[in-house]
Amino acid sequence: MVFCSKRFWFKKTKFVLDSHYNELNPIIEALNIKNKKQRITYIYDKACEQIDDYYQNKNICGFKNNKCYVQQKLNNKAINGCCRICLYQSSKGCTTKNLTCKLFTCSEVEKRCKVITFDDLKILNLLSFRNRMILKSDYFSKREDVINDLYIGSMFIWCIKIIVRMINTIYVLKRKKIEEK
């Protein structure tokens, strides 16, 4: 049913949930959005919201003085955990809403608590297989860029964008090292 909902003969179909199972409401809502970009945006934002709700008031990375569990254990100069190499990291936290980054947890965190995984977010099943593959590895990107990658849906274009983002990240990291000296 989910795959077929994208077909042209379902363009005028309104999906209705005849149940009190509220977890399916966002899925039905997404199925009723007929504009592709709006549907992708809704799915993306709803998945981010589900992750934020799950981790609300939880410090799963164990941050103390801007250092995560691993950085505290290693007692090095690094701060901001895994996000330290992201272009969108600021002193106030992340400046963008990246679903892939929200789902990433290191092995230390996974040992300490139950984490939400890609498969736990059922609404992501509404995306095509190719879009799910793109989404699983679109780290350190702005929300708008990820949504555009999903909308275009081209693995070739996405690969080129990832390479450019990696080069930019390496450049920024080298610049930061030079500035620290």
Can you walk through the features of this model?
Helix content is 49%, strand content 2%. By secondary structure, it is mainly alpha-helical. The protein has a two-stranded antiparallel sheet with strand order 1-2. Helix 1 (25-31) runs antiparallel to helix 2 (36-55), helix 2 crosses helix 7 (143-152) and helix 6 (129-136) runs antiparallel to helix 7 (143-152). The longest helix has 26 residues, at 155-180.
SSE topology:
Layout: H1 25-31, H2 36-55, H3 69-74, E1 89-90, E2 93-94, H4 99-103, H5 107-112, H6 129-136, H7 143-152, H8 155-180
List segments where confidence is low: pLDDT < 50 over at least 5 consecutive residues.
1-5
Strand order of the largest sheet: 1-2
Q: What count of helical segments does DSSP give?
A: 8
The largest β sheet comes out as: 2 strands, antiparallel
Tell the overall outline: globular
Radius of gyration: 19 Å
Mean pLDDT: 85
H-E string? HHHEEHHHHH
Structural class: mainly alpha
- End-to-end separation in angstroms reads 58 Å
Number of strands: 2
Give the percentage of residues in beta strands. under 5%
The portion of residues assigned to helices is 40-55%
What can be said about this structure in brief?
This protein is an all-alpha fold. The protein has helices at 25-31, 36-55, 69-74, 99-103, 107-112, 129-136, 143-152, 155-180; strands at residues 89-90, 93-94.
Give structural attributes.
181 residues; mainly alpha; 8 helices
